[in-house]
Amino acid sequence: MKPSLTDRSAHFLHQPFGPWPRALLGLAAACVLVIYFLPLWNLTMFAPQYPDGLRLDIYDHTLVGGNHGQDIVEINLLNHYIGMHDLTVEGFTEFKWMPFALGGIALILLRATVFGTVKELVDAFMVFTYFGAFSLWSFGYKLYQYGHELAPTAAVKVPPFMPPMFGYRQIANFEVYSYPRAGTYVMVAAMSSVTLALFLAWRQRARHAAA
């Protein structure tokens, strides 16, 4: 009797995979751990009074202003005039859970590396995918909040706006640029490694089935 699709899927999930997927998962785990030390995103603003720009790097656990932190002070002064909330570490709930989430993902990847079955690999892939999608949504929503929750008593009235999540936008007399930094590229590399590991495990299974 030919095995059902459910039986074949269960058999596939409990199959061990070879050294290449393990190596890729180990690489992905190392990448995830490195992300803590790298900026994920950068916002840079230019205006006539700031020809050199005001720069803000966003990490998974903190904010770092350019010019030895002075840029974030200037940004918050400008925010005060138009009624925006100050940019503070305390204002980002993401900073409280993102390092732990990334640490958990690294552990899941290491678990998949050690046990080496497709089930652990699929679990790692799904968790990483959900984390990436939710992080992008959370970042976009935070930008939306900052540009729309303006104090009615602000000295300068501006219509609600959303700072750019990616690319360029003109906001009043400021040119605002928003682009990913090294941490995001490392995260993409880690996700690509997990995806490739899953593909290699599937191809290994297909070869065994054809043999």
Structure description:
- This protein is α+β, with helices and mostly antiparallel strands.
- The chain has one domain (35-204).
- It contains 6 helices and 5 strands.
- It has helices spanning 5-13, 19-34, 70-82, 94-115, 118-148, 182-210, and strands spanning 41-47, 50-58, 63-65, 167-171, 174-180.
- It has a 5-stranded antiparallel β-sheet with strand order 3-2-1-5-4.
- Helix 2 (19-34) packs antiparallel against helix 4, helix 2 (19-34) packs antiparallel against helix 6 (182-210) and helix 5 packs antiparallel against helix 6 (182-210).
- It is elongated and about 65 Å long.
- The model has no long low-confidence stretch (mean pLDDT 88).
Helix percentage: 55-70%
Q: How much of the residues is beta strand, in percent?
A: 5-15%
Main sheet specs: 5 strands, antiparallel
The gross shape turns out to be elongated
Mean pLDDT across all amino acids: 88
Q: What's the arrangement of strands in the largest beta sheet?
A: 3-2-1-5-4
Low-pLDDT stretches:
none
DSSP summary, beta strand count: 5
What would you say about this model in short?
The chain is α+β, with helices and mostly antiparallel strands. The chain has helices at 5-13, 19-34, 70-82, 94-115, 118-148, 182-210; strands at residues 41-47, 50-58, 63-65, 167-171, 174-180.
Record keyword descriptors for this entry.
single chain, 5-stranded antiparallel β-sheet
SSE map:
Layout: H1 5-13, H2 19-34, E1 41-47, E2 50-58, E3 63-65, H3 70-82, H4 94-115, H5 118-148, E4 167-171, E5 174-180, H6 182-210
Antiparallel strand pairs: 1-2, 1-5, 2-3, 4-5
Helix pairs in contact: 2-4, 2-6, 4-5, 5-6
